[in-house]
Amino acid sequence: MFLSCDLERPGRFVPDEDRPAQPRCQLREAAPGIHLLVPAAQEGLVRLGVAFTDRRCGGPGYGRSGRNPALDQLPFGDAVHLDAAYRPRLAFPSPGDKRRVAIGKGDEVLVPPYTFIATASAVLRVGATPVFVDVDDNWCMDHRRIRAAITPRTKAIMPVHLYGNVTDMDPIIDLARKHNLYVIEDNAQAFGGAYKGRKTGTLGDVAACSFCQNKTFTTGGEGGMVTTDNEEVAWRCRSFRDHGYDVRERLRLLEMEQKLPYIHTMVGFNYRMTEMQSAIGLAELERMDNWNMPRRKRNAGILMEALAEVPQILHLPVDTPERQNGWYVFPITLDIDALTCDMQTVLAALGAEGAPFWNVFWPQCHTEKAFTKKRGFGDSGFPFTSKEYAEPESVDYAKVEVPNAVWHQSHTFTCFAFPTYTEDDMRQIAHALVKVIKAYSK
Question: What is the pLDDT of residues 83-103, one digit of tens each?
Answer without folding.
Answer: 333 233 333 333 333 334 479
